[in-house]
Structure formats: C-alpha cells, structure tokens
Design brief:
globular; 76% helix; mainly alpha; single chain
C-alpha cells in the first residue's frame, strides 16, 4: 500500500510539473511535506537535503557568480565576441564556444539570465532575429555546464547524493571526460545542422534605450581593474580544487570571503544573489528521493531494470537509465528527474557489481542534456519568451542533439567506468 501511495503522489507531482500549475520548488516542497505528514519518511530524513554540503556549495556559487558579473567582465567578453562581419555561422560558433567555456566555471543559469537581454538587443540592433541566437545560447550553457563539477547544480546534487551513499564523490574535472566531447558534439551539430532548424520569429522591437553615464563607465573600468586580482585568486582556488588540495566547499567559502573583503559584492547583494527557489527545489528533491527509496518503489523498479540487464546486458541497462532520466527531465524538471533516478541507478550498480559512479554520471548528464522542451531546464525557460519561441521549436532543433548526446554519453561511460 505504501508503494502504491508514494507512486500515486509522484504521479500527481509530475502532472503538476508538466502542466506548470505551480512553481517547481513549491510543488516539490509540498510533496515532501505530504510524505512527512503521512509518515513515509521522518522529519530528519526529509530535511537532510537542506544540510547537504552540495546544496550549501550551490548557494555559495550563486554569490561568486554575482561577484563576477559585478565586475562587468562577462559583458566585456560577449561584446568582443559579438563582432559581426556577415558570417552568421561563424558568429554563432564564436558565441557558443564563449558561453560554453564560461558555463564550465560559472553556474550556467545566471549566465543565461544575464546574457539573454544583452544578446537579444544586440541581435535586434544588427538585423539578426533573436530567435536565431537564444536557443544556441541556452544549449551552449547547458553543454558547457557538463564540463566541470560545479558547472551546473545537477552535477553538484548528484555528487552530494553519491557521497551521502558512502562513496567517493567526483573530482572537479571528472565530468570533463564526458563534458568536453559532449560540448564538441553540440558545437559541431549546431554549426552544421542545428542552425538551419532555428525558427524565424517576427515581433515588435520594444526595447528601452540604455543610457550610460560617465560615472557608470568609470565604475565599470574600476571594477574591471580591481577584478583582475580577484580573477587571479579565483583561478588559484580552482587549481587547488582541481589537484584536490582543498574541497570545493572550502574553496567556495574562501572565494566568497574574498569577494566580500574586496567589496566586489556587498553583503546585501550576496543575500539577494542566492536563488532560494533552486535551493528549496534541490533540497526537497533529495528528501523525495529518500522517500522513494525507503518506501520500496526503487526496489520494485529495480526488478524490472535487472530483468532488462539479464536480457540486453550492461549497455542496454545504461541506455535504459539514460532514456528514462532524459524523458523525466523533458516532461518535468532536471533536478527532480536526477533526484528520482539516483536511488535507482545506485541500487542497480550495487546489484550488478559495477562502480556506482557510472550510473551517477549517466543520470547527471542525461538530466542536464535537456534540449527537446522548454520546461526541462531552467535556461531553456529563460529564453522562451525573449526568443518568441514555441514549444515545438525546441523539439525541431534539439531532438537530434539529444540522440547524439545519448550515444556519446553512454559510449564514454561504458568505456570509462564499466
């Protein structure tokens, strides 16, 4: 009865996420509360996600991202990249390369939210429809986020769940084994095929002109100079984490303290920069994942997965887990999908005797590679309105890319971790 009850509640949750009746964070927190009140899990088990060090790291990374954006360097880089000489494919490739590199080192969601109005206005000013630019912007940020551990919140959450299960977590560059090839595949696809599938939307140019004062320009120049030192310090922090001399959460704490000490960000800005909806969403998803595992739902699905494994082997099992995670992501939310699938992937790995990192990596990547719908990943939703997109535009551009990412991810994880 408990398995049936939990499954019924989860079905309702996915229905609400698909229909977008309520915000994802409110939906998942409500479901978590239902599981607590109905004694599916204890209060301690339900809210362990809020104390998870990966969630705390994500909050710190929001502050670091804000500090870097305050420097004005992101705008400076993009303005240098967006030099148009009439060669649109080359412009698109330059923009996607730049955004994917930035997304490897800064959380990809604030990058897209910051660059969307900038890229849209630039396109309107230069006679290029924003609908030709914003899907590539989102896709580049998603792909770039898979390169490092902290490129996307999904990677950090899965890493936290892996450590919570008693296994060593991922190193900061372990994701690059898959992230770099995936990003190259995405760039080549968009350059050769994807750009031809981008829609052309016509809409009114309702921009408000931006006025720059001499004071604001001087402030930007001062910020730019001051943050050369800051960027050097952050680069040193990244190197120390990469060679495993310091943990990522300690590096993030040090970086935030440097930002505050150098006045690159004020305490008020630091508080406001944290996207609390993402924090609540991830923390609630971790608790729901615990409820799924404790109720026996995971064990029930495990039987079906093991049956598949007996028939088609490890490769077929890996493809199945990737596909299920991808579908859940596209119809609901990437964080929810990863949290739901991790207990299953972990149980399957232990049952068939392989490194749990293999399926953890598969789930993290497949939950991130959301290209088919606007609701699966936050960056796709950010550009939906400004690009004048329709739901089907993502399907046309992203379907083939999703297939290529599946082939690339499954092949590499099978070769590296089997």
């Amino acid at each position: 009865m408990e398995i049936f009850y939990v499954t019924l509640v989860l079905a309702g949750m996915f229905t609400i996420l698909i229909k977008q009746w309520f915000p994802p964070d409110l939906t998942l927190f409500s479901v978590l509360s239902i599981f607590v009140l109905s004694n599916v899990i204890s209060v301690d088990e339900a809210f362990q996600g809020f104390a998870n060090k990966s969630v705390i790291t994500i909050a710190l990374l929001f502050i670091i991202s804000k500090g870097l954006f305050n420097s004005g360097m992101l705008h400076h880089i993009i303005e240098k990249v967006l030099k148009y000489n009439g060669n649109f494919p080359w412009l698109l490739l330059k923009m996607m390369i730049s955004v994917s590199i930035l997304s490897a080192f800064i959380n990809n969601t604030p990058i897209v939210s910051t660059l969307t109005p900038l890229v849209r206005n630039w396109g309107l000013s230069n006679g290029i429809n924003p609908s030709k630019l914003l899907i590539p912007l989102s896709y580049a940020a998603i792909l770039g986020g898979t390169i490092t551990l902290y490129g996307t919140s999904t990677n950090l959450m899965v890493d936290g769940l892996l450590q919570q299960s008693g296994h060593p977590g991922f190193t900061i560059l372990e994701f690059s084994y898959l992230g770099i090839p995936l990003t190259l595949v995405g760039l080549i696809y968009m350059y050769l095929i994807g750009r031809h599938l981008l829609p052309h939307r016509s809409y009114k140019d309702n921009r408000t002109p931006m006025k720059k004062s001499a004071n604001s320009e001087n402030m930007q120049i001062n910020h730019f100079r001051n943050n050369k030192i800051l960027l050097f310090v952050l680069l040193v922090m990244f190197t120390l984490v990469a060679v495993q001399l310091i943990s990522i959460i300690k590096a993030a704490i040090i970086a935030v303290l440097i930002l505050l000490a150098t006045k690159s960000i004020s305490p008020a800005e630091a508080r406001k920069s944290i996207d609390w909806s993402v924090i609540i969403l991830i923390s609630s998803a971790i608790g729901i994942g615990s409820a799924i595992e404790k109720s026996g739902v995971t064990q029930t699905i495990l039987i079906a997965i093991l049956y598949i494994n007996d028939r088609v082997g490890l490769l077929g099992t890996a493809i199945t887990i990737y596909l299920v995670t991808m579908i859940l992501t596209e119809i609901s939310h990437n964080i929810a999908a990863a949290a739901m699938m991790f207990p299953l992937g972990h149980s399957v790995a232990l049952e068939i005797g392989i490194d749990p990192k293999m399926f953890a990596m598969l789930i993290a990547i497949s939950a991130s590679c959301s290209f088919i719908t606007p609701i699966g990943y936050q960056t796709n939703l950010i550009i939906y309105g400004p690009g004048g997109y329709r739901f089907t535009d993502y399907l046309k551009v992203g379907f083939l890319l999703s297939i290529f990412c599946l082939i690339c991810t499954v092949s590499l994880t099978f070769l590296i971790w089997r």
